[in-house]
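target protein:
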Amino acid sequence: MIFSKYIEHYKANLRLALPIALSQLGYVIVQFADNAMVGSYGGDDPLPLSAVSFGVMMSFVLFSLAMGITLGLTPVIGEHFARGEYRRTAHYLQSSLVSYPILGVIFMVLQQLSVPLLYKLGQPVEVVDMAVPYYQLMGYSLPAIMLYGCFKQFLEGAGNTVAPMVIAITTNGINIVLNRIFIYGNCGCEAMGVYGAGLATLVARWASPVLIFIYFVVKNEYRDYLKLFSRGVKYLQDTYRLLSIGVPLAGQMLLEGSAFVVTSVMMGWFGAEALAANQVAMTYGNAAFMLTIALGSAATIRVSHCYGLGDREKMRDVVISSTHLSALWGVMVLVS
């Protein structure tokens, strides 16, 4: 059978993709937790859930750019890791730890400066008023996202997709626990509603780079990469290569996500109830999309390893097998 030659590739792709899918699903779980808890907090009033919906979708613009840029590190690390050029991979990690957080700060400032634009999109004013503090808190998390991306994409480029998954599950738990405290007002904390949901997500996102750095320090095999850091690193040259890959990826993610953003804005023209309902539907849709993203990430890892070793035939088989799996998942989602 024509597909039998790809069985081993299917297995290898899924071994990498499933942990990535669970990691990516973490972002959806955060949205789901915010939706469920804020919706419960609002009761019959759709305003809090509408505000979270609007804040989440508008913050997705710079969030997708930040995430997309960090993805450029994965194939570069994978290529040099496959060749055994460990010092070179360490230098790329070092360069990313300098350039990515700087970009994160720039994105954070841009998000704060863009607040007045939220009032120009035809949304109910009361929704925007409640969404602005949430939107601002999401902006403060952008440097953390890019800092976390340095270590996460390095690990995935080296073929370790399990550690980021565990950290994502851990921070999701932190977010949900803090939601219970900040949204409703538990453990002596004042109930903060929508602002509390944003604060919980902000803390959880900043916990991610802290936890993954601890992982690097504790694990000998990764701590050794930190020891390979050098003053002679060519930051500009490395950053240029990372951005030459990451910026197109970020642009693609932004274009894909812009349809959801525009849809949410248009839903807001029909009122708070429509905006809230759209957010619930989008959360479920995003969950189904996560495996597709994960399969693409797994293919990136394996293709970069094949490219580093100069194995073009295997690279072709990896791409074809990944396409088969993505098509199968698309059909399953369509008929379900």
Notes: Residues 178 and 309 are 46 Å apart (CA to CA). The radius of gyration is 21 Å.
